[in-house]
Amino acid sequence: MEEKKVKILEELKKTFPDKIKEASAPFGDETIVIDRDFLVILVDFLRKKPHSYTMLLDLTCIDYMDRKPRFEIVFHLFSLSNNHRLRLKVPLPDEDPWIDSLTFIWKNANWLEREVFDMFGVEFRGHPDLRRIFMYDGFIGYPLRKDYPLRKRQPRIRLRK
Amino acid sequence: MGPSHPAMHGTIRIMLELDGERILNSEVEVGYLHRGFEKTCEHRTYFNLLPYTDRMNYVSPLINNLGYVMTLEKMLNIEVPEKAQYIRVIMSELSRISDHLTCLAAMAMECGAFTVFLYKMKAREFIWDVIEQTTGARMTTSYIRIGGVRADLHPDYEDVLKKAIGETKKVLKDVHGLLDKNKIFLNRTRNIAVVPPEMAINYGWTGPCLRSTGVYYDVRKAHPYLVYDQLDWEVPLGDRGDNYDRYMVRMKEMEQSMRIVEQAMQKIIKTLRPSPTMAKWLEPAEAIRISRIQKTDKKIRLSPNLEGSEKDAYPDILAKDRRYIVPPKEDTYTSIEGIINHFKFFMKEHGIRPPKGDVYFSVEGGNGELGFYIISDGTDRPYRLHVRAPCFHVVAALEEMIKGHYVADVIPTFGSMNMIGGELDR
Question: By residue range, what is the domain housing residue B338?
Fold first, then answer.
């Protein structure tokens, strides 16, 4: 099992030598860092055999407020046939946080991307219906950003008719 | 439909576009139970945020505790004593049973089978008796702690557990008899909301819902944790992926869970726990007075709500590393090392400080893969904590599942998915 894990990182580095910015395995979780314009190509490659990462386990975002680039989108992919998880990280700059939507590949990306948009204000280009999911329309700000205070209050809004 | 519709247990709103009784289009609106769990966790220490995890999937809080705690243990590289691992297995399997019972009870009730609902609730009460006896709480348990569990099993747990399993088996038999060939139930479940395996994978389904489509994936088998690989059990699969299969897979899974509990009960190391009422133990005030003059080795009586976490039980239930566990109260009361240990653990900016980095770990929750993703910046609070809620992915598929069916089919379809508001909205 251990040997196989290393292989995937090595193989990816060999296939896309200039695209993989970083490949490591902190606490045993294989992670690769890539640029946002390479995301769709890589995901398409990983989705097919023999890697067959057919499942999008999770999608979330981290806000490193004092770091450049500020945001980082984190994908967890899972391959049922190889029983292996892979983490993809895509850094996004503060000025224009956008990334390509993966809704055309995975259907659950729809809600996951809406959640990240709701909480962090990251724009997913090509998303069919990018709205807030947990918060209401008319909510101001992005609650999971680090500059949003824990106890911030929101102005009252009118009842929907 | 919803957010406060009698069949929308857990608040969710479904907007339906109808042609007579047929659903043309629908839109699911979630977020009514959003409490900012992830934001709150960023402002709590690793030890303090444990009770918040209870409130996610409130039907199986112990599995939530386990998921969070094991993620942190992976980060800190803590070794958990074997007995604590067995206790964790028993507790999470009992939670799974109670989770499935609740889901199916609600589903059956909404189809009109109120008897089934009452039977299952009865069984759940027996399961919760076991949980309550050991953890001291029914729902908000916070029992599984970093490095182990909070307290040892109750001395009489075996009898209560055997009774709970016996009763649950009876109930399952009755329910099989009531529902399996029931025409009304079958009409609402057979071939309704069929999900092919490709679609389930595409939606990121895990747990019983994924297995009902025939895909063999269970976190307990795929990435074994605790002692699951030492126990003998099977993963039940469905073949069609309709409502009925989701019901059946859950029923079969409960049987497997009971198999696991029974084996764990056999294998668990039995340690005799001295009863504080029998022995002549020192009162805390007395012990503190003596300790001011000299060191005392006598046993100290603890308050009843600390039952099970006496110093003698510590090697069985908690890890050895004193940096990550609450020191025994006996030490805190009577020795300077103990009290320093206590303060170092609870003081701001001290306590548990994992190394920098990010870690993902998942356990098999009642609804599927319950994953925690923690980013640590080296301080005593998580920089960010994200939960992979299994039913988020399941509910995301609801719109597509009910399209073209009747309004009456929404209810069992929704029921068979086991949507838990606290977990979905976080």
Answer: 284-346
d(CA B282, CA B187): 66
- The per-residue DSSP string of chain A comes to -HHHHHHHHHHHHHHSTTT--EEE-GGG--EEE--GGGHHHHHHHHHSTTT---EEEEEEEEE-TTSSS-EEEEEEEEETTTTEEEEEEEEE-SSS-EEE--TTT-TTHHHHHHHHHHHH--EEET-S----SSSPTT--S-TTSTTS-TT------PPP-
Contact B384 A62 (CB under 8 A): yes
**Residues paired with B235 in a beta bridge:** none
Token digits for A146? 């680090």
Residues of B in contact with A142 (CB under 8 A): none
| B390 and B294 in a common domain | no
Q: Domain range spanning residue A36?
A: 2-125
Q: Could you read off the pLDDT of A85-118 as tens digits, one per residue? A: 888 889 888 888 888 888 888 888 888 888 898 8
What tens digit of pLDDT does each residue of B293-310 get?
877 777 777 777 777 777
Q: Report the alpha-carbon distance of residue A115 to residue A93 in Å, rounded.
A: 19
Residues of chain B with Cβ-Cβ distance to A80 below 8 Å are: 201, 215, 217
* B126 and B163 Cβ atoms separated by less than 8 Å: yes
Phi/psi for B361 (5° steps) reads: -145, 145
In a domain? residue B3 = no
Do residues B183 and B215 both lie within one domain? yes
The CATH number of whichever domain residue A81 belongs to comes to 3.30.460.80
With a CB cutoff of 8 Å and minimum separation 6, the contacts of B48 are none
Beta-carbon separation of A108 and B360 below 8 A: no
d(CA B167, CA A127): 50
CB B39 to CB A85 under 8 A? no
Determine if the peptide bond prior to B3 is cis (ω within 30°).
yes
pLDDT score, position B273: 62
Distances (CA, A) of B372 to A86, B355, B407: 15, 17, 36
Alpha carbon A102 to its chain centroid, in Å, reads: 10
ipTM of model: 0.86
* Nearest of B387, B342, B337, B330 to residue B361 by alpha carbon: B387
What are the angstrom distances between the C-alpha of B166 and each of A153, B122, B389? Answer: 51, 12, 32
Q: For residue A145, tell me if it sits in a domain.
A: no
**Among B305, B325, B346, which residue terminates a domain?**
B346
Report the Cα B56 to chain-centroid distance in Å: 9
> Which token pair is A141?
């700000």
Beta carbons of A142 and A122 less than 8 angstroms apart: no
- Pair (B185, B225) in one structural domain: yes
CA distance B205 to A57: 9
Q: For residue A3, what pLDDT band results from cuts at 50, 70 and 90? A: very low
Q: Evaluate whether B60 touches B98 at the Cβ level (below 8 Å).
A: yes
CB contact under 8 A, A80 and B217: yes
Dihedral pair phi/psi, residue B156, rounded to 5°: -100, 15
